[in-house]
Design a protein that fits this description.
With 202 residues, the chain is an all-alpha fold. It has 5 helices and 2 strands. 43% of the residues lie in helices and 3% in strands.
C-alpha cells in the first residue's frame, strides 16, 4: 500500500472491499474514540477548574494578603519564598490619543513609523522597479525598506489541496503545508480550547 507525503496510507475507497473483521475493527475504534473524547473533555474541565483556583490564589488572595501584611517578599516557616511582582501586558498601540500621550511624555523614540505598500497580484516586476527607485531617494537613505513576497497561510493550504486533487504531487514540506487525516465519530459535541499548564523544571 502506498503512503501519502505525511505517511498516512493512501487508499482507493471506491475499489476497497472490506472484510467483516475489518468492519468490526472500525466499530471498536469508533467506540474507543468516543470514550477517549469523553476523557479529554473531563480532563479539560478539571484543568480549567484547577487553573481558575490557582489564579484566584496567586493573582488575588496572595497579593492581597501580602499587601495587608505590607510586604512584597516573605519566606514561610517551611522555606517557601513568596514575592509579589508586577508585569505589564499590552497590545499594539495605534490609538492617536495614546500615541500623542507617549510623545508628550518623552516617549517619541518608542514610536515606529512604517509605510506598507501592497501591490496587486502578479506585480513582482512593478514592485521591484518601485523598490529600486525608492532606495535611490535621498530622503529614504536612512530608512529601511523591505520587499516581501508571500502567500497567505490559508491560500497555500487550499492551493496544495487543489494540486493534489488535480493529480500533482506538491512538496508539502517545502510549501510549509502539513496534512492531517482524522475520523469524526458521530455529531461533533466539542470545541477546541487553548490551555496552558505547568511542568516541573529539570
Amino acid at each position: 500500500m502506498q503512503s501519502n507525503a505525511d505517511n498516512t496510507p493512501q487508499v482507493n475507497f471506491e475499489d476497497a472491499v472490506p472484510e467483516d473483521g475489518q468492519l468490526n475493527r472500525i466499530g471498536t475504534l469508533a467506540n474507543r474514540a468516543l470514550e477517549q473524547e469523553r476523557e479529554v473533555v473531563l480532563a479539560t474541565r478539571a484543568l480549567n477548574l484547577a487553573l481558575q483556583a490557582y489564579r484566584a490564589t496567586v493573582d488575588e488572595a496572595l497579593p492581597l494578603a501580602m499587601a495587608n501584611a505590607r510586604t512584597k517578599d516573605f519566606t514561610t516557616e517551611d522555606g517557601h519564598r513568596i514575592q509579589v511582582r508586577t508585569v505589564f501586558n499590552s497590545l499594539k498601540l495605534v490609538d492617536e490619543e495614546g500615541l500623542a500621550w507617549v510623545e508628550e511624555h518623552e516617549g517619541a523614540d518608542n514610536i515606529r513609523t512604517v509605510i506598507t505598500i501592497e501591490f496587486p497580484k502578479e506585480s513582482l516586476e512593478r514592485a521591484k522597479i518601485f523598490y529600486e527607485r525608492l532606495t535611490g531617494l535621498d530622503v529614504l537613505k536612512s530608512s529601511k525598506l523591505k520587499l516581501e513576497r508571500y502567500v497567505h497561510d490559508k491560500t497555500i493550504g487550499a492551493f496544495a489541496k487543489s494540486r493534489l486533487e488535480a493529480g500533482d504531487d506538491p512538496p508539502l514540506e517545502l510549501l510549509g503545508v502539513t496534512r492531517r487525516s482524522y475520523a469524526v465519530v458521530g455529531k461533533s459535541r466539542t470545541k477546541t480550547m487553548e490551555l496552558k499548564g505547568f511542568d516541573f523544571k529539570e
